Amino acid sequence: MRLTLEPLDPERDLAVLHGWVTHPRSVFWGMQGASVAEVAAEYARIADDPHHDAWLGRADGVPQFLAETYDPLRHPDLRDLPEVAAGDVGMHLLVAPTDAPVSGFTAAVMREVVAFCLARGPRVVVEPDVRNHRIAALNAAAGFRVAREVRLSDKVAALSFCDRADFAGSRLGSEEAVV
User: Fold this and answer.
1) pTM > 0.90
2) Which of 30, 56, 75, 105 is most exposed, with minimal Cβ within 10 Å?
């Protein structure tokens, strides 16, 4: 399976994107009930922001996941936190909801996206909702370490970091990793 990332095209990808971000399984994405126009506006805003990017992920050419990268020092909820440093790369990840999951697919996507982020900076920052136990387990498998819980504008988050050494020593980042 070949995984690739390309810049999201908000117009071209809007239909698939809307289906993913509003799906009941994507509750932690925070766009439940969003209209097509609202999703279009949000991703147009991201496209216009020089410090925030959206990426369409494909598996063997088929759209299967969404990643966002951003500068945590420009993020209104994170910029004043003492743990955040210049050069950090913020990351959000959404694997397309499916009724036919493939064993190991989400782990493979996580490995690809973390490696993609680490190619852009020395450390990756994530801030998942503390209630999202599935992403917490996946983050831990990729080497993320929870620094602390923080209150953000829309959630209580597990502020977490992963550098190249953390990733290389993780279950997903090790060269021997089999997914």
Assistant:
1) yes
2) 30
